[in-house]
């Protein structure tokens, strides 16, 4: 049994059945995520794009010349294009993603849009340290870019471990440019994860289809429903799949029972205060040097240097 199957079985064997959010992302999941970013309820993307457009000159100056821009979880590199248009002296752009097909297609598109740019995609699970490719021009520094508030998908210890991986990949004089979603009223947050078109529900359920297709499980997709709600005490959205009947399923010959109404936790989306994020960043070895917010103060982009 390989490590991934062992980890999946461990997650599903806990009192709160859990599947890692990384299993959202096969090609279909990546496409569904792109649709989520265009939904009217999903305020995160518009707010982050507004911040990028308004402050890109300052961000580009902080990144500097001959840097390597290493994007964790690059997806379709939507926000990155704004940066790339203002970074004509970049040594390399290194998009890193677990969703291989989508990553390679996005990297090819970036190459055609920015023909002078050295684009070096890396297929990797970014929760583990990975080898950086050697660009044609040796970069003077590495800047890790992590938009989309994907950091919020990790609980404190895992977020800290991920920030430490970024700290290592950034290296000596490196930096981190990161999108961080902010705590706010549940009336704004809840609709973002329960859109009226049902795209987020399809994205959540696609995880089970992905596992059935690629990991040999036999989930009945018609017997689970999407649920997402903001827990303001914990400052996080809890995203689950709810079993709609007593049923069983199997993965790699390991059988599980799930009761009617019982849930599988598929993702958290943590929302931060500026102080809370700064504390976590500091504990991982970063100092928040600059914070930009959108006009409604929904979202932030933060530039962090290594302590
Ligand atoms: C929330 S999306 C954000 C996409 C894009 N950065 C944006 O801001 O729109 C998360 C991205 O991270 C990738 N991803 C999730 N978990 C990952 C992991 N453990 N290792 C590498 N990539 C991962 C997904 O494939 C997806 O493209």
Overview of the molecule:
The chain is an alpha/beta fold and 307 residues long. Helices cover 36% and strands 26% of the residues. The protein has nine helices and 13 strands. The strands form three sheets. A seven-stranded mixed β-sheet has the order 4-3-2-5-6-13-12, sandwiched between helices. Strands 1-11-8-7 form a four-stranded mixed β-sheet. It has a two-stranded antiparallel sheet with strand order 9-10. It is globular. The model has no long low-confidence stretch (mean pLDDT 97). The chain binds S-adenosylmethionine (SAM). S-adenosylmethionine (SAM) binds next to helix 2.
Short synopsis of the structure:
The protein is an alpha/beta fold and 307 residues long.
The proportion of strand residues reads 25-35%
Question: How many β-strands, per DSSP?
Answer: 13
Number of helices: 9
Written as H for each helix and E for each strand, in order along the chain, the element string is HEHHEHEHEEHEHHEEEEEHEE
* Spatial extent as radius of gyration: 19 Å
Structural class assignment: alpha/beta
| Head-to-tail CA distance between termini | 41 Å
What would the principal axes of the Cα set say about the shape? globular
Low-confidence stretches: none
